[in-house]
Structure to design on (495 residues):
């Protein structure tokens, strides 16, 4: 049996789900009555599938004995001999089972196995006439009985709702999903390796916080019974990491879960993974070098390339020096007016109508401008672009630009038409920081963190900080179409 051949249906595939369950339950009962344990505690596994395949070079027809284990995903049952394939964490491997080799009784029991059952197989490797590396089974054991059938192999699992709700089935039958999550794991591993190589200290900060800060977002709130007070799930990692700069850890990073009680979309999940890193004695330009080096290293080591391809076929080149563009210059180019930033709010609203975008008239002046950026400009930034010097109102935690008090020393890295990573020259003046916070107190999503301000008063060194959305990075690197495709168990309405 070659890997390309579809397997025929199992013996009970013509039955509906409930009938198949009943048939498999009957098999389970029979096994128990005959004294066989259908749920073994272990199997002596010597190799994974890929490790076993590597043991038989192309110039050899036979190899050593191996012991593997995994889930049955394909059968070809015949009279005196059969083929099956199992899947494990590394991939798939084929096995050849002969009645003369394992005995009549064992072979009869073997033929009663179902797709989805977990088995252990032991025997020597050989190469079939079609060239496929296969195990000649000397022994097999059922190690865990599957009572419910797998999705049909030739149809796969295509219903998005079922994919997200039953991710375990998606991982069994969809190779692309399985590889995407392996890639995600490699990306996170390489992120850690990058920061460790630069002498950053990996830390953990609280998920439960008395004051939510570090971002303009609505938190999830809960009541802590033991202390009889309210806490929030964190919306950002920033303020606690910067406390560590005050404490003398001058290079810190965290890969952590963040929670925002806001909407669901193709780009947003209320629970997501962030990387945040802070380095003393540098600024946003130091973070620019760090961020570019980080993404280039991660792409090259985790995926083996710096050349990415969009769904429309356009290539994205991560190599070389990335483009830099000022926020104001991009805005002026998009609206076609050199006096945009001098216009009254009413004139800006009229211009947005001409540009064909809907803008809430209740928005503040700077928010209208940012709407223009997000709706007209951001999606056009396909190649890596550092958008610098954004309006100061958009972030109260960054230093104000020396030669332009209307902007801050910030960049937002955009790739593939979306923001991937922002970075700042961090504000360390406690008086300026307090003033910026006070301007936002009273807004729905803002709270005054007096303890953080107290920490700043003890002195924080000059520093640059950056944040990177892991899920968005994985979307880009793996060409996923939806953030839910990069999160093993995305947030869903209860069934």
């Amino acid at each position: 049996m070659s890997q390309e051949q579809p397997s025929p249906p199992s013996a009970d595939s013509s039955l509906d789900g409930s009938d198949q369950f009943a048939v498999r339950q009957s098999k389970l009962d029979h096994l128990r009555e005959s004294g066989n344990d259908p749920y073994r505690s272990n199997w002596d596994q010597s190799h994974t599938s890929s490790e076993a395949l590597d043991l038989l070079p192309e110039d050899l027809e036979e190899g050593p004995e191996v012991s593997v284990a995994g889930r049955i995903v394909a059968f070809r049952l015949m009279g005196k001999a059969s083929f099956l394939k199992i899947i494990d964490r590394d991939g798939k491997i084929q096995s050849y089972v002969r009645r003369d080799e394992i005995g009549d009784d064992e072979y009869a029991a073997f033929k009663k196995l179902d797709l989805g059952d977990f088995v252990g197989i032991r025997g020597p490797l050989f190469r079939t006439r079609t060239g496929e590396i296969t195990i000649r089974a000397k022994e097999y054991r059922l190690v865990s009985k599957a009572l419910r059938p797998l999705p049909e192999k030739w149809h796969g699992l295509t219903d998005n709702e079922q994919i997200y709700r039953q991710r375990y089935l998606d991982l069994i039958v969809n190779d692309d999903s399985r590889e995407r999550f392996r890639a995600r794991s490699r990306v996170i591993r390489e992120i850690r390796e990058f920061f460790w190589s630069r002498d950053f200290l990996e830390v953990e900060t609280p998920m439960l916080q008395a004051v939510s800060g570090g971002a303009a977002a609505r938190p999830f709130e809960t009541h802590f019974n033991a202390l009889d007070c309210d806490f929030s799930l964190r919306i950002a990692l920033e303020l606690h990491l910067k406390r560590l700069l005050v404490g003398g850890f001058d290079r810190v990073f965290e890969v952590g879960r963040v929670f925002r009680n806001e909407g669901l979309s193709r780009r947003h999940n209320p629970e997501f993974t962030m990387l945040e890193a802070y380095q003393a004695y540098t600024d946003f330009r130091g973070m620019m070098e760090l961020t570019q080096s980080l993404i280039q290293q991660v792409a090259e080591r985790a995926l083996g390339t710096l050349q990415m391809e969009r769904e429309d076929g356009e290539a994205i080149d991560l190599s070389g020096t990335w483009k830099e563009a000022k926020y104001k210059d991009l805005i002026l180019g998009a609206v076609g007016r050199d006096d945009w930033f001098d216009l009254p709010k009413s004139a800006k609203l009229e211009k947005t109508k001409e540009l064909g975008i809907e803008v809430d008239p209740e928005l503040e002046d700077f928010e209208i401008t940012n709407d223009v950026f997000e709706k007209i400009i951001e999606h056009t930034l396909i190649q890596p672009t550092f958008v610098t010097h954004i309006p100061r109102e958009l972030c109260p935690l960054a230093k104000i630009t020396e030669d332009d008090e209307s902007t801050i020393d910030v960049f937002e890295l955009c790739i593939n038409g979306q923001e991937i990573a922002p970075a700042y020259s961090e504000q360390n003046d406690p008086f300026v920081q307090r003033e910026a916070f006070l301007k936002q107190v009273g807004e729905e999503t803002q709270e005054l963190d007096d303890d953080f301000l107290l920490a700043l008063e003890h002195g924080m060194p000059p520093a640059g900080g950056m944040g990177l959305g892991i899920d968005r990075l994985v979307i880009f690197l793996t060409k996923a179409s939806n953030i839910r495709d990069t999160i093993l168990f995305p947030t869903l309405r209860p069934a």
